Amino acid sequence: MRNPDKAVRGLGAGTLALEALVLLLAIQPIRVVGGDLSGAAIAAIVALAVACVALAGQMKRAWAWHAGTVLQGLLLLSGLLHWSLFALGVMFALVWAYALHVRRVILG
What we know:
By secondary structure, the chain is mostly helical. The chain has helices at about 5-35, 40-55, 60-75, 85-105.
């Protein structure tokens, strides 16, 4: 690999960008199928998606990886607003853990 640091940053940024997209696209199906989705839950989803996009652009900074981990915890906590947000939080926490593992393996 020519530039492993850049490849790992791309993995983190791609993971966060995909998470933002999934969060935003999940609003309507959750409202239709999942039942009662409060305004607070929708605001939390939008805020988390914006945070994902902002962090995706900051992956070259070391603190962004820690902030991404905190973001996964916040998504899990948003499960208190709706159970499906907790399910998304579990899935993306696992994906983020894998990205951290790949980062550790490649960068040492």
